[in-house]
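Let us work through a complete example step by step.
Step 1: write down the sequence.
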Amino acid sequence: MMKSRIINYIFPPLLSLSLLIIIYLPLNFKITEVWMSIPKISIFLPTIFLIIFVLFFNIFDWQKLLNRRMVLSVFLLLTFVSSIFVYGFYRDRKLSLEYLPKIYNVNQSWGIQGTLIEIRGINFWPTWKRGKVFLGDEELRVKSWEESLVIAEQPVMSKFGQFYLYIVREDGVASNKIPFEAKNPNELYLLNH
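Step 2: predict the structure and record it as C-alpha cells.
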C-alpha cells in the first residue's frame, strides 16, 4: 500500500516535468531564438503548464498501470530519457544564441535616401559600444544607438532593389537579416506625377 502511494505521488510530477521539457522547451526555443517573435516567454507559462499536467496525471492510478502494462512502462522510460536529451540540446543551443543581437522589427519595409530606419530588437549593446548598420553591402549612418533600438539613415545607394538590413555589433557579431527595399527616388517621383 505504501509503495502504491509513493508511486502515485512521485510519478505525476516526474512525467509532467518530462512532458514540459519535451513540449515547452522546443517551443520556447522556436519562438524566441528561431522565429524571433519575442525576446522571452513569461516565467508563469511553464508553471501553469506544469500544474495542468500534474493535475491531469494525478487522475491515474500509476501503480496499477505500471503493473499491468509493460508498454506504458517503456513509454514512460522513453519520455524520461528523451526529456533529458531535449533539455541538454535546448540548454546548449539557447545559451549559444541568447546573447546574439536580434532584430525583431523595422518601422518600414522600404526607404529612399535620407529615410530614418528604426530597428528594434535586443542585444545591440549600449551607446558607447556602437556598431554598424548595413543595407546589403552599404553602411548606413547611425543616428542613435541603444540596447534595443537603433535609428539609422539610409544613404544615397549605389544601386536600388531588395537587400538585407542587419546590424554588426562592435565585437563583429552580426544580427539576423531583415528584407528591406531601397527604392529609387526618381521612380517614386514619376509615379506621383
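Step 3: interpret the result. The chain has five helices and eight strands.
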